[in-house]
Amino acid sequence: MVSGKAASVKKPERIIVGISGASGIIYGIRILELLRSTRLEAHLVISQAAEMTLAYETGLKTAAVKKLADVNYPVRDIGAAIASGSYATIGMVIAPCSIRTLSEIATGVTSSLLTRAGDVVLKEKRRLVLMVRESPLHSGHLRNMAALSDMGAVIAPPVPAFYTRPETVDDIVTQTAARMLAHFGIEVEALRHWDEFRK
């Protein structure tokens, strides 16, 4: 029986982090590291191709990356909580986002939990940020990006912000990862603002 009083609905405090097999896996890792300083639960799904990229690009093991998240899901678990729109989240960031991942979400023909979760975020009108990691781009790639943008996704390639005067690659990675979180209204201490550098 529903009471006459309006029930208070708690705002979702979960964010999905997807990591695909594109180069630049450090971005996804840094996002997970930055999220540890926030109130949000990080729900991670990492593709099999990403696990291969992890071995090529870092000295980390998959288990170490998974420990950075609060909840982990096998990429083949289509019945996982994040595959359902009834499971409340503030949205999803895929970093890096391969063209295959982007294309599956754009068409709605999803083959894994990674792309299904992205599709669900879109259909529920939640924030989907895709850190597309590919260059150069042909017209098919661009059409899929335009289609996703029309559906409400944020297409956010990892473009360095040199006004911050980075001294290391790590500085660039951190600023870029922090900018991805800013799309969700999440401001981490590591984020440098343009106003800091204006004269």
Write the layout of secondary structure elements.
Layout: E1 14-19, H1 25-35, E2 41-46, H2 48-57, H3 62-66, E3 71-73, E4 91-97, H4 99-107, H5 113-123, E5 127-132, H6 139-151, E6 154-155, H7 169-182
Parallel strand pairs: 1-2, 1-4, 2-3, 4-5, 5-6
Helix pairs in contact: 1-7, 4-5, 4-6
Structure, explained:
With about 200 residues, this protein is of the alpha/beta class. About 35% of the residues lie in helices and about 15% in strands. The protein has helices at about 25-35, 50-55, 60-65, 100-105, 115-125, 140-150, 170-180, and strands at about 15-20, 40-45, 70-75, 90-95, 125-130, 155. Strand 1, helix 1 (about 25-35) and strand 2 form a beta-alpha-beta unit. The mean pLDDT is about 95.
- CATH architecture annotation: 3-Layer(aba) Sandwich
Query: What is the number of strand segments?
Result: 6
Strand content: 15-25%
Name the poorly predicted regions: none
- In CATH, the topology is named Rossmann fold
Main β sheet profile: 6 strands, parallel
Structural class, from helix and strand content?
alpha/beta
Rounded to an integer in angstroms, the radius of gyration calculated over CA atoms is 17 Å
Number of helices: 7
Number of domains: 1
User: Which percent bin holds the helix content?
Assistant: 25-40%
pLDDT averaged residue by residue: 93
Instruction: Characterize the overall form.
Output: globular
- Roughly how many Å apart are the termini? 61 Å
